[in-house]
Amino acid sequence: MTLHPNGLFLRREALDSGYRDRDLLAARRAGVIERVRHGAYVAAETWQARDPVGRHRLRAQAVCLTHEGRVALSHVSGAAEHGMRLWNVDLEHVHVVRLDGAKGRKQRDVIYHEEGWRPDGVHAMQELLVLGAEQCALGAASLTNTESGVGLLDSCLDLQLSDEASLWAEHARRTQWPHHAKLQISLRLMRPGAQSIGESRGRFLCFKQHLPEPKLQFHVYDNRGNLVGITDFAWPHYRLLGEFDGMIKYGRLLKPGQDPGDVVTDEKNREDRLREVTGWSMIRLTWPDLYVQRVTGDRIRRKMRLGLAA
Prior knowledge:
310 residues; alpha+beta; Endonuclease, Chain A; four-stranded mixed beta sheet; 14 helices
C-alpha cells in the first residue's frame, strides 16, 4: 500500500492492496489509525502528535491527494504549508484554488476558490500543489482580522518567504478581490523583525493604543562595542527596552541540559546587564497582557514618562 508523506494513505489505495473497509474500521476502533477526512487515514500516533495547525496540514494534504492535481492549496491552507505563523484563524476548512476551471464552492470541510491564480504562481511541494507565498499570505490575511493579518505578514517577511515590495505588488494585482481595502491596513503595519506572533501582537497593541512604534530586534552594545544582547522592542527616545515572554520563546532558548527555570534565570541576568549598560528601564509583555490592551498600554506609557524624566 502506498504511504504518502507523513504516513497518509487513501481508502482506495488500501482497498487496492487487499484491505477491506471492515479492516480499516477495526484499526480505527483499536486506536491504530485515525481518519483525517473522508477517504484518508494516518497513523493515530501521527495525528495525536500534531497541534491544530499540523492537523490542518494533514487534512489539506488529504484534499490534494484525492483531487490529483486539480487543486492547489491557497489562503490559510497554503500559508500553513509555507510555514507562516497562524493565530486566530479558521482551521476547520481547507482552502484550495481550482486549477481545472470548475466553479468555486463551499463544502463541509473544503472551500474551493476559483479566482486569481497564475500558472507561474503554482508550486510543487512534495506531493502538493501550493500557491506562492505572497498569494497565500494575502489570501489568508483577507479571511481574518487586521491583528491576525499583521502576524501572518510579519512571519512571511521574517521567514524570508517574500519581501515588502513583492507583497505590495501582489496586493496591487488583487484590486478586484474581496477585502482588498482591509488588507491595506495589515500591509502598512507589517514589519521585518517580528520573530513570533506575540511580538507582532505586541506591536499591534502599540498601534491600537496610539503609542510610538517600537524598534524591533534592537541591538545593545557596551562601551567597547561588544554586543550585550538584542531586545524584541525598544523605544530609544523614551529610554525603554521591551521583551515579549512566551513559553515558545523559552523553549527556543533552552540549551542541552537546561530546564525552563535555568532559562528564566539566564534571562533575568541578561535583563540586568542590558539595564546596566543602557541605564534604561525594561518592560516585559506576556500573553495575558495582550488581552487587556488598555491596561498594558497604560503600563507602557508610565514607563515612557519615567524614561523622559530620567
